[in-house]
Amino acid sequence: MGRARFLQDNLITAASMLSASSNAAGRLSNTQKSGAGAGTMATHGTYTGATDRDYLVRVLTGGALGTATVVWSRDGGLSFDPTPLATATTPVTLEDGIAVIFAAGPFLAGDVWAFRAYRPHGVARLLELDPNTEYRSAAGVADPIDLVVDLGAAAAPDTLILGGHNLTAAATIALHGDGDAAFGSLDVEDAVAWARGALVHDLTTTPRSCRHWRVRIADPDNPDGELRIASLFLGTPTALSKNVAPGVTRGVVRFGERDRTVAGLPNGSVNAVAEAFTFEWLLLHDADRTVLRDVTAAMVDAELQRLRPVWFQMDDAVPTLLRGGVPHGDVYLCLWEDDLVLAHRASTEDAWDASGRLVEVPRTRPR
């Protein structure tokens, strides 16, 4: 039996560190105009950026179509690209697959069009820690699909998690690491075992400090015709110093409401079920108290004033459980339901009791 551990230190901290060889298409909203000029503008193209963005296009120099110039902003008007663009009836390229087309005229200086670029299934979803959002590849999975990570500097992750995926048992999954962005030499080449739900893989290659990492997935017979993954973790686990799994009891909780008819029969549906873990850990050392405090701190998003989930694995020696003969990843995205309580034993300086309850964050929306 191994140790209980938490996985909250993801080396992938921003969507800008991620790219994919295949991604479901983004969308562009209709434009909304402010201003008295007669000129019009429409969006064109398919958005390929990683995150949702708010765009503004503002007339810099007024005049007829072809003479008037515009500048544009990707952050809702906080800043503008300094290079003026001429208005035209052919697509005028902005960035990331976005272009705009102008018509009519004249255009008045100060006229503004606003629109939004959406990436509902972009790689940024992999970092949201929300089972209801997910990265999706483009339709068609005949060729392997790569999720590529640029950490910015060499680092040595210990564990990979792919959570909330739709990969089939026939999928081939590999984790590659290299100092070269082209992955020419493959300093790390690990085969990753499949599991339903969330798969967890501990790296064994040493040394393995690499800047560039790649998850390569081949699943050509996937019946969905696309790959879907809700979470990607590549980082270092935080484990308690000794085997304390016997101090954890697990169960299942139900989310949703169930009423009864006048005849007394159950009515309604179960929206979701989730794993739950109740802790009664006794005689922990100061180091373990520090681990639990660090985990708790990592689960608080002070800027947004909300709790943030963390991956929890009850036993790091048992990455999967068999259910109906099928391996399920035994790692779960969880929140504290009952507050973590740390009590110091007065009889000794280095002894703490800990209690609390973690509950899995379930997916509550159908795919």
Tell me what the structure shows.
The two termini are 36 Å apart. Helices cover 4% and strands 47% of the residues. The protein is built from one helix and 31 strands. It has a nine-stranded antiparallel sheet with strand order 17-14-20-1-27-30-31-24-21. Strands 3, 4, 6, 7, 8 and 11 form a six-stranded antiparallel sheet that branches. A five-stranded antiparallel sheet has the order 2-13-18-15-16, with no helix packed on it. The chain is elongated, with a radius of gyration of 25 Å. The protein is mainly β. It has one helix at residues 286-298, and strands at 5-10, 18-20, 27-28, 32-34, 40-45, 53-61, 69-73, 85-86, 92-93, 98-103, 112-118, 135-136, 145-155, 159-163, 172-178, 188-192, 198-202, 210-218, 228-229, 231-239, 248-255, 258-260, 266-268, 272-284, 300-301, 306-307, 310-313, 320-323, 326-329, 332-344, 352-360. It has three domains: 5-23 and 121-237, Jelly Rolls (Sandwich); 27-118; 245-360, no CATH class. A hairpin with a 7-residue loop joins strand 6 and strand 7.
